[in-house]
Amino acid sequence: MNGTRPQGARSFALLGATVLMAGSCVLASAAEADDGGGPLGVTVVASGVAAAGRVGVLVDADEVGKPAGEHFCTASVVRSEGRDLILTAAHCLGGVDGSGVVFVPGYRDGKAPYGVWKVKRSFLPGGWAQEQSEDSDIAFAALAPNAAGEEIEDVVGANVFAPGTTTGASPVTVTGYPDTSEQAITCTNRPSVHSRTQQRIECPRFSAGTSGSPWVNGHHEVVGVLGGHEQGGDTDDVSYSVVLGTEAAELYRKAGG
C-alpha cells in the first residue's frame, strides 16, 4: 500500500481549504477550542495548542518538499517507553512495514515546524492484519530519531494512550487534517455508543484525510482514534472509532507503550 490512503477511505465530499460554511459548520480560527473549552459540536480551524506538534500528517516520503496537499492521513504522538510512538488508524498504514512514510507534526501551510520524522516500524493488530476487521482499525508506528538524535516525544510532548475508558465519560476534542486542507481542524463533543465495539461522535466536516485523528479528553488522554466503522464513517459529519479495549492495550504494549 506504500502508505497511500486506501481507495474509499472517507472518500466522500472533501473539505476545500478555503471553503466557508454557514452556521455551526463555519471554519474559523478559535483558540478557545484548543483545550476543549469551546462550544460542543462546532468545527473550527485549529490554532495554538491544538495545532502544536502532538498532531500531524502522514505523507509518502517521496512527496516531502513537493507542493502542499499530498498528506493522506492524520496521526498523533502518544507516550511510550521509547518516546518514539505515534497512533493512527490501521487503514492508513495497511500492510506497510513503515518504510516510505513520514510523520510531519504540527503541519501547516506546507511547513514542517517540528521537522519530518521517518516511520521505522508499524504495528497492526491481528484483527486488521488477518481480515481488516473494522473493530481493529488502530495502529501504532515507531519513528526514527531526528538528525540531532532526539526522539519525537522529547520535541513535541505526547498524550497518554488510555484504553478501557468508558465511552462518553467526558467530552473529547478531535483534531485532524482533511487531505485538501493545509491546516488542522478541531471539534469538541461527547462521544456516544454505536455498538459494543464502536463509538461515534458528531463533528462536522471531518472528511478524507482525517482518519487517524486522536480523540483527546480533558486529561490529555487519547480515548479514541478516527476510523473503525466504514473506515471512519460514510458522512463528513459523524465519525467513528473502535472502542479501545483489550486488543488495543495489547498492541500498545507490543509497540513499546
Automatic annotation (TrEMBL):
Molecular function per GO: serine-type endopeptidase activity
Segments passing through the bilayer: none
Protein keywords: Signal
Protein name as it appears in the record: Trypsin-like peptidase domain-containing protein
GO biological process per UniProt: proteolysis
Pfam family, one: Trypsin_2
Organism: Streptomyces roseirectus
InterPro entries registered for this protein in UniProt: Glutamyl_endopeptidase, Peptidase_S1_PA, Peptidase_S1_PA_chymotrypsin, TRYPSIN_HIS
Signal peptide start-end: 1-30
